[in-house]
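Appendix B, Record 12. Input sequence as logged:
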Amino acid sequence: MPGIIDTIALVVIASLGTTSVALSNLVYLGLSALAYGGLAYGAAALQGMLVSKPAVPKPEDGSYNLKQSVPSLAYVLGRVKKGSDYVFLGEKNGTAYHILVWAAHRIQGYTTHYLHDEAVTLDANGFVTAPSHFGSKVQILSRLGLAAETAYADVVSAFAGIWTNNHRGDGLASVRMSAAGVSSERYLKVYPNQMPQHSAVGDGMRLYDPRTGNTAFSTNIALMRLWHLTDPVGGKLSLSDMYLPDWSNAANVCDQNVTNRSGGTEKRYHGGLWFRAENDPVQVGRLMDEAAELVVYERPDGLIGVHAGEFVEPDIRLAGNDIKRVTFDANQRRSSTVLAVRGRWTDPANRFNTVDAAIYGDPYIGEDTERTATVDNQAIQSHNHCARLQKLKYIRKNAPRVTIVAHYHAAKSVPYRRFVRVHYPPRMTEVIVEITSTPRLSLRNLTVEFSGIIVPSNLYAFNAATEEGVPGANVDPLPPGGVPAPINFDVTIDTEVVTGGQTAAFGQATWDFVSDALLYELEWQPTSEIEPARSAMSKTGDAEVRSGYLSDGVEYKFRLRAWSNGASSDWTDYQIRTATADPVAPGPATNPSLTGGVGEVTFDWTAPNSPNYYASRLYLNTANDFATATLVATEYGAAAANDARTVTGLSAGTYYGFIEAINPSGKPAAAVATGSAIVT
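Logged structural output:
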């Protein structure tokens, strides 16, 4: 992406913090030695030369998009969940287009996309099909960061002249997200958290494996450390500077199967993390070294080797004649020992958030004060992995400390070892010492001085069934519930007197009260839809609302929905009601009769003397049964008037008539029978 990419690259160069590659290497490895011991580099003299850099991001730091004017490039090792950096955001014809960079290198691929905290499902064209509230309004496309990428065609088309086919994003793993606009009424229903914030779970860097000579995706932490030492963002060394047999062995150790508390198997030292180019490479390296129990050191031939996270039987034994001086510390002080070790690790099952591990040990043995240490490493992605490191830290925190000054000829190889055997009775009889500081060579005295801790030969032994413990349960976030739909919705038709003494009908809606935070919208419309739908809103705290006046005798459909903070619930099912302005029936018709003729009958009757009389409905049947009679005519007239109506087109036979008086709302009086008549 010309312009944007160039700017980012300049930031990376400016963030290296050293003026020469050689000096940067020395600073980096020197501090690594200070942290882990067993190295030949003199770290103390170099420590002050390092430029201060930001700490490595926590997993939660990348939960959402990281909007910055000029972001530092992001690197992903293993599988992680993180947000991205914006390189483009524009709107065209109601659709917002976002182009985001997830990683500054080629990646293996994306496994799950998130919009805010919701994992989404994409169809073949990248449209979000689940959760359903997005309604296929969001589309997500992605690029892996190949050396020669392809520009997003729809963005090029929509923003011609601003974003062109030259904006390919070579070497950048990116995501194109589009969000289509919706009506203001539906906005918070489709986008309950406002504009979607994209993040993704993905498999990051493809790593070189010295065992096979191939480059492929891996979660092996030793391979991550090898890449980091040989990349400009890390140690700035080359593969020719590395002693690859050591690194191959470390990768093999990381790949060993271990048994976890559930009886399953997992790899010994696998994990993942992400960081930025501006982050302190020493801190990034420290995380990987701690997570895989690695100790990086310089060999006698000048190559960079590594001690793998395993116990190696010492090939150096220092006895009484080899040792000039020993300082022994039993390490029994409360200030330096611990009763338990806590753990913090990144849980993939908890959306890659940092969680607490089960405590190793008991922090409250015989005293009220808590004496604990903590393993806090975001590169760890397994509870068993974290528990094993907790046990190691517990052993090391409580181990006796020694400082040994030995003759050069006996100890000249000590700087290139992690474990040595010491026999110096009575306190140290064939003990194993793990070196924890940089050994110092004195040419004046021809001695080697080093410090360490006394550890058992089964240092890395771990019984998951009894030692791993059970982590606390994760809190599963509830999916957005939206605004609750109304409960027990009902509508009744009521009337009231209006101007002129006439009565008018309206719908009275009721429902169960839930919260003052909810308002309710009632909608009504004739079932024939000859009129547009109308609506009315309730007041705060009310559990009822009335419609406007309804047309007398018309059938209406009613429905209800709730509103809160601009978002609405789904509509309820329709309730069908007929408007009745006058619920009082008129009196029945009187003097009914039925006279037959040729193909016809004639109804005669007297209308009731009721002020609300409106018309009479006339029914015929071939049986003397009103329930199955057929309405053949409606005759309108005045109250108390004599009325008649002839019905023609009848077949020959005997007919029975019925007359039903109604008011203007169609409310009927009791039907009266006319008797029978013969049609010829």
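The first strand starts at residue 74 and ends at 77.
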